[in-house]
Each structure stands twice: as structure tokens, then as C-alpha cells.
Amino acid sequence: MRANPDFAVETERVRRLQDREAPRYDRQIAVFERLLFGGGREWVCGQARGNVLEIAAGTARNLPYYPHGVTVTGIEVSEQMLALGRARARELGRDVDLRLGDAQALELADESFDTVVCTLGLCTIPDPARAIAEAHRVLRRGGQLLLLEHVRSPRFPVRLVQRLLEPLAVRAAGDHLTREPLDYLGEMFEIERVERSKLGLVERVAARKRPVRLSS
Fold this sequence. Notes:
Rossmann fold, seven-stranded mixed β-sheet, 7 strands, 24% strand, globular
């Protein structure tokens, strides 16, 4: 997987932005969840099975929605977000493993998870294709990838507004408004289900790991 040569610099910038925004994050994202993402976390987490890895876990807002019986490991690049996530886990009484780490370079063994989850995270990960390749690597054969993201709208007027706003969003929050995970998922995953809503701005994806094809 060819990486953006500047992704390490951008990762550090995103880390600083998220550390700064952590105290306000839950309040701010709750507004967008009511307007755009209602039911999305439940849709994603309710399908998780077995040993689950959540990348870009943030403040662990997904924890209430995981079925009991799954084992959850969460990776988050921001120490401040992670601290809030650990506090939430204690309040909920959920036994989870929340770790500081980078979704683009997971310090985890190959084929060690049954499910990988990412909700509203690929928009800020500097190299999302690299993160998806890492998700593929750590998933077991036939493992599932579950996503909730805001994406590039297929409707031209909406997409035009996104493109106009994107430079400001990237500068202020590292938030890319016109990304589309389906652009790079297909090489590594079998797409099983896609649901779009809100003028195509919101996307839910369930996918299954494709086996690695060895060149002859």
C-alpha cells in the first residue's frame, strides 16, 4: 500500500486538533448524530461479533451499542479522547481494552479479529486507504468490516457545497467532506450491504474480507 509521504505530519496535526477538541467533542457530535446519524452506531455495533477491533474509537461513544459477549479493543490516536473513552467505559461497567495507537499502523497481530468497526473516523484519518489495509490485515479469514461515515454525496449540488466547505473543514478539524470509502474497499473486501441517507451524505457499509491473492 503506497502511503501519502506527508501522512505522518498530518497524523500529528490531527492528533493535536483532536486533543484540543476532546472536551467539546461529545457535545458537538451529539448534535450531528440527531441530525444525520441517528441509529447509525446501533446499526454498526449491533452486527459486531467475536473479537472486535474499533479504530478511531474517539471517546468510546459506541460502547453502549455493542452486544454483550463480544470482546472490544479500541484504538485512538488522541490521548485526550482516549481518557474520556476510558472514563465512559468505567461508567458503563464495560470491560474493554482502549489503547493509544494509529489506525494506519496497527501494532496488532495478523488475523487476530473477527470484526473491525469504524464510525465517523475515516474522514479524519490522513491515509484512510492505509487504515483499511491494516483492518484487512488484522481481520481473520471471512472477517467483517462495519462502517458509518459521512461521504461524498452523489448529488452534484450537495457535492459542490461539500467541495467548497472542505478546505475549511480540513484546516479546522482535519475533516475531509468528500471522501468515499467505496473507492478503495472493493480490492480488499466483498461489499455485502450499503445504505445511504441524508441526500447521500451518510453511508453505512457492511463488508467481508477477501482472501489475499498471491501472485504467481
